[in-house]
Amino acid sequence: GVSRSRHGRTRPCGNPEAMTDFPLLRTYERWVKRNSVWFIPALEYSKSLSMCYAPYSLNYYDNEEWYVGFEAVTDVISLYHDSILGKKSPSELKCGPETTLIKLLKRSLSVVEKSQLFVEIITSRRTKDKWAFIVIIEAVKVVLRLQLLYNNGGRPLNPYSPKEIKEMNDRSKCFEIARQNFPELQGDEETGEFSDLILMYAKHGRGVDPHGNFRPRKCVVKEPANSAEIAAEILHIVRPLIYASLRFRGEKNDFTPWIASLVTDLTSIMLRKIASKIARKKGKSYNVGTSSRVLMLLMYLFRAPFYQKYSRDKLKDLVRIVKRIPLLGSALIGPILEISLELVERRYFTTSAS
C-alpha cells in the first residue's frame, strides 16, 4: 500500500513489498498478519506430512505430480507469506542494493526454484523429452542469477547467515512496533500521512523492545570483486545449464555432460581459492565459502550416467545390508533409502544442486 505525504509524494505504508491494489489479496494479507501465529506453522506442518508420508503411499508414483505439486504450491505460498510478514527466508540470496526490480528478480528466481521439480515431473509424464523444458528452466535461472550477480558487483551470491536473518526479521518487527506506538499519527493504513516516521523508526535500527534506543545504521563498505572471483561465480551459475544442454543434445549414456559439468565445478572452486589468495595478499578478508561447494561434488555420484554405471548397484547392495538390521533398519532406514535411490534415478532436480 502507499500513502501520500504533505508534499504530494507517494510513501510506502505498512509493508509496501506485500500489500497490493487488489481488494481480495489485501484482505487475505491482513488475515495472514492477524493469524500468522497458527496459520504459518499449520501450513508448514501439512507440507512436512506430505513430504514424509507421501512416498510410502501405495499409489505414490501414479499420483506423484499431485504430491509434488502440493509441495510446490505450499512453497510458493510460503514465499508470499514471508513477503507479507516482512521475513527473510534462509535460502534468500545476498545480492547488493535491493531495488524494486532486484526484489522482483529474486522472487522470480525463488518461484522457479520451488516449482522446477513439479515442472520436470509433469513434462516427463506428458512429453517425449523432458530435457528441453529442463534446459529452458536452467536458462531462465542463469539469466536471473547473472542479473543478481551484476547487481552484487560480481561478489558471490551467498545466502544470509542465521544471525543476519534474525537481525532483518527483528527489523521487520520494528515496523509492527512503530505502527502500534504511533496510532494517532498513522490514520488509515492506506492514507496515513506520517508513514515516513514509521519507516525512520524501523530503518534506523529501533530495537524490538518498544522502549529501546535508536541506533545509527552501520555502513558496510564492500570491496570490489576481482576478476578471478567474478569468473568463479559465472562458472558456478552456468554449470547446470551446461550439463542440461549437453544431456538434451547427447545420448542417454554419454559421459560428456557429466565430465563437462565436473570440470566447470572444479574450475570454479579453483578460481575461488585464487580469489581468496589475492584478497589475503592485499590484506583484505574474503569469505571463500568453498567448503559447501566442495561437499556438493558428492552429488556427481548420483548424476547420470555415472550413477547408473557405477554407483547404483553398490548403493543398492548397501541398502540390502541396512534392511537386514532388525526394526530400525528393516522398518525405517532401509525403506527410506530404497525410495530415495529410486527418486534420485528418476529426477534430475533432486541431484542437480541448481
List keywords for this structure.
354 residues; mainly alpha; two-stranded antiparallel ribbon
Textual characterization of the structure:
This protein is mostly helical and 354 residues long. The chain is 64% helix and 2% strand. It is built from twelve helices and two strands. A two-stranded antiparallel sheet has the order 1-2. A hairpin with a 5-residue loop joins strand 1 and strand 2 (10-12). Helix 2 (64-85) runs antiparallel to helix 3 and helix 4 (131-151) packs antiparallel against helix 8. The radius of gyration is 24 Å and the shape is globular.
| Largest sheet: spatial strand order | 1-2
Radius of gyration from CA coordinates:
24 Å
Helix tally? Answer: 12
The profile of the biggest β sheet is:
2 strands, antiparallel
Helix proportion range: 55-70%
Low-confidence regions = 1-14, 185-192, 210-217
* Order of helix and strand elements from N to C terminus: EEHHHHHHHHHHHH
Gross morphology = globular
| Strands, total number | 2
Q: How far from one another are the termini? A: 35 Å
User: Which oligomeric state applies?
Assistant: single chain
What structural class do helix, strand and pairing data support? Answer: mainly alpha
Question: How confident is the prediction overall: mean pLDDT?
Answer: 79
| Proportion in β-strands | under 5%
